[in-house]
Amino acid sequence: MTTRLFGEPVRRREDARLITGQGRYLDDLGGGALAAAFVRSPHAHARILDIDVSAALDVEGLVAIYTWEDLPGALAEPLPLLIPHPALTHGRTAYPLAREIVRHVGEPVVMVVARDRYLAEDACALIRVDYEILKPVVGIEEAVRGVHLVHEDVPGNIGAHLVQEVPGPGGLTAREAIDAAPHTLEFRLDVERSACTPLEGKGVYARWDADDGSLRVYSSTQTSTSVRMAIAAKLGLPLPKVEVIAPDVGGGFGVKIVHPWPEEVLVPWAARLLNREVKWTEDRREHFVSSSHERGQVQHVRAGFDDEGRVLGLEVEILHDHGAYTPYGIIVPIITSTQLLGPYKVGAYRVEFSSIYTNTVQVTPYRGAGRPQGVFCMERTMDRIAAHLGRDRTAVRAANFIQPHEFPYDQGMTFQDGRPLIYDSGDYPEALRMLKELIGWDSFPETKARAAAEGRRIGIGVGCYVEGTGVGPYEGGHVQVTSDGRVHVSTGLTSQGQGHETVFAQIAATELGVPIEKVSVVTGDTRRFGYAVGTFASRAAVMSGNAIALACRKVREKALRIAAEALEADPRDLEITDGMVHVAGVPSASIPLATVAVLSNPLRYAFDEEAKRATQFAGPASDDRPPVAEGEEPGLEGRDYYSPVRSTFAAGMHAAIVETDLDTAEIRILRYAVVHDCGKLINPMIVEGQIHGGVAQGVGGALYEKMVYDEHGQLLNASFMDFLMPYATEVPRIETAHLETPSPLNPLGIKGAGEAGVIPVSAVIASAVEDAEGITIARMPVSPSDLHHLRLER
Amino acid sequence: MKPPPFGYHGPATLGEALDVLAEAGPDGKVLAGGQSLIPLLNMRLAAPAHIVDVNRVPGLDGIEAGPSGVRVGALARHAAVERSPEAAAAQPLLRQALRLVAHPVIRNRGTVVGSLVHADPAAEMPAVLALLGGSVRLASRGGEREVPASEFFTGPMESALRPGELAVSAFFPALPRRSGTAFHEVARRHGDYAVAGVAAAVTLDEDLRIAAARVACVSVGPVPVVVDVTAACGPRPAASAGWEAAAEAVRDRIDPEGDIHATADYRRHLTGVLAARALRDAASAARGEES
Amino acid sequence: MNETGHHVRLTVNGVVREATVPGRRLLSDCLRHDLGLTGTHVGCEHGVCGACTVLLDGEPVRSCLTFAVTVDGHEITTVEGLARDGELSPVQRAFTECHALQCGFCTPGFLCTVTAFLRDNPAPTEEEALKAVAGNLCRCTGYQNILKAVHRAAEIQAEEDR
User: What is the spatial distance between Cα B219 and Cα B261, in angstroms, rounded to a whole number?
Assistant: First the structure.
């Protein structure tokens, strides 16, 4: 009998409640709470002249109306700039409620609290705000002209400017390398804005306990520990008096790692002030105009290469639109700049980005976090090199690959974690071989010719990426075996559908040798685990998974020590199987882990039958040793942390076959193939699910989704009618194959998988459409209307 | 996204409903399926003082199909009309078009008459009514009037419905013998409002030559644009008809606008493509009927 | 202004439930907040995402595009009513077997939609299954496993009917 569950497609333990309507998402809590709603700016850039709430005061059920003027102390200050960086010379963040100036449509101006959301919205509708309209700055080109400013004190609308340069062989600069190269290319690429768009928006629910002077806050967040610290700081509360819990969260994809959102500090503040429970549930329109967007970039590329297609020098200049504020710093363009290199070694590399203010919703990481743009840039470059040389696109890529024997491979740059960009492991040639086989790359020319004979136009595309996952600084895990034999695992980071309750239970069950049914997992609850960073950057499995494994190993060691004493055996001869500690090969010499848990905690009082065994007169004890030995602690529990020296680098390669309609220019994905390497798989079923979901989001970004702002800064498609998230009919069947190159950096040998699926999709689809049409694709997404016009321009 | 407050009225008879509507005048809005109205309310883009919910009014859910055509009552859901074999037999275009209306779950609740009254130029049912030369029956306390499609659609989201009136039914005429219909559209996503769409009806003479050919186009004007392409097709045998001339005639007649999903030029091009496809299918359906 | 309350009586998951609600109360809010059945989720409130789909007299409808008072006297089935006597329905079982949910937020809408679909069409083709779920948005799964689950549910249903 084995309790080894690591690597098995174990069914999810979350599902039982989620498929019966018993999940508890934010708005499912606090049935009796007051509801908050916000008056948001209808203008992209304006000065607030006057706020007149008088008409709203008659709304029945109205409880309170707040503006910036009402906010005390730290709450009246701008929200934190979460990730400062020396290059972010002009970082700016918003006030929780607008102070004097609004800088994007949707910025909160007035907070209303009422008996229910209907009434709160009624009051919002009656509040009159007079604005003096200022000139809005919309679009990257307009912003860099710098004629009008988003922030008066940010010249040229440039928030940050960063250059990273990696010299080539012989110390050549990228420019020198390109100039000296046999072939050069220069072009521009455009990537549109999209957004995470989880099906559940954000939400905050706060309960103030006046007797206890404590606050409990539920938030649909990707980081409860950090929200807790922000609330304590903003409200001037001692940290131990604030608890933050992420309940079931209906998807995140990055937007919920940003914190504190204005509502995350305002709702608790109002709850304390009113001494009433208050809840805010973001609606879909609010989510479009007041959460975050991502992706929008313009890239200028220069590449120099040899006859084989080997890149000798690469220069990329990125204009990154970060919207009105920079609460999350410049992580997105940093990731674009560094992860752009993918599985390739380029001779010399220079990347320069400007991160630019516009009067639009702020830009923070969305699944992939700058990588889709970087991969789009590099893979478009590879395709253009192939086209220029008349070589096979995969051959050009292969010519540039880092080879398996070259790991660890130092790309010579600084990654988003502030640490060197050193790839830990990978096997890119093998991944490409598998992908070509999976999609039938080599036989595609015949397939294409057959289709052409039928009057159909098809094309094939490919894209490769490397993803730094499992970024630090750390995560922790706590594991406790209670006297009933149950194993309680907790970790501080949060879950938004990744199946953490299942995979962490698999790890704990495997490490401790207990049936998985005995294991329960809690995430994102600061009452259970106070130290954590959060769920982002494909890090949860790597960080908390390893921390939990390490904590389990501590518990196991202690369990074996105690059991050895009880069994009068050498701990080295013991193993744990199915919840029983036994002498290897001697099943009769055993003791249940539950009993070990009892023995681990010397008792004076027996609270039940089993507990009697741990009381003072229960059996022989050593008189010369304290009941809790020096260096020991009561209880069978352990806590440990995993803090990696640097990120681990997963990789993948995708290929697609598309068909383009000759008349309507509709684009249909006929096949989509994925080869994926995230090191050792904890649960292949869950990893596949992550890939499927990522690819679907990638298809959205490649063919459907964009945020369309007009020149006034109005978001024209702030609804699911017009922001075209794919339905089932738009997503192809995804064929997957896995390669497992373990990470040498962590005990479990794993790498992150959460973002992988989305990263190369735009690049792959562009490659395939280009192949079908023979038209250069330089801008994503591409719609039938776009393709029609590209055909006309040909 | 919660509706603004309104006075709710749930009349139990048609008379009661007309009384309430008469009283409410321009401040009254009829609720049937609600699949277009309630989103507008939730977004507070509409704030009628009175909602007259006709869902309890008996006798409004009829689907009467006969040789002359199909009369659809105000409470007949899209799904019911779509599933009705009698309606499909009398006027096949109804089912062809209804399959393209949003998604099945929306069709379970939405009504055909409601979608006519909503008069969205991107919607399928107004185009169907316009193509077939159908009509909408409007009732008020003063009596009833039957408004032909050509007069019913007056602008984007605007119809001839007057304050105090209730659209009680719509009539979709049958086509002569040797007629066929088809509906083709391109939507960005399956189930979305069409970027462009064309309903076509073709009638053949005894020699299976084209006697009449018409299309109605969606999303290319303020109202459904009906184009008679009989002349462009010429009295050619349907089997060998070249539809490109008809497509060009359609492109010449429409004046689409660009939006975030498609340019005006693409819409014009696409409408021509879809017109040719719809006419070809309609013609083969017309031939099929004969054989 | 005080809004008029309307008394509504709904049979929800076989149980008669009553509430007094303003005319504008959406069925989704009535179920969730007046009746405490929070399994029905609200994802867009303009009828596009399908998370709020419930069965009205057996037919799937968007509860965010329906006023509670309109359906006074009717039968509603929500996700909480899909399991019978504590036993998961074939559709529920198939969804967990096939890993057809991740965050689970859209899942109740899919479950209700698929339940009605398979009742009417117990052995769907690929194309029919695809069309059946094509009106519901999911941001997590990429739909592949949802489609798998539709067919798996049909299988389970057929096995049980044998």
Answer: 11
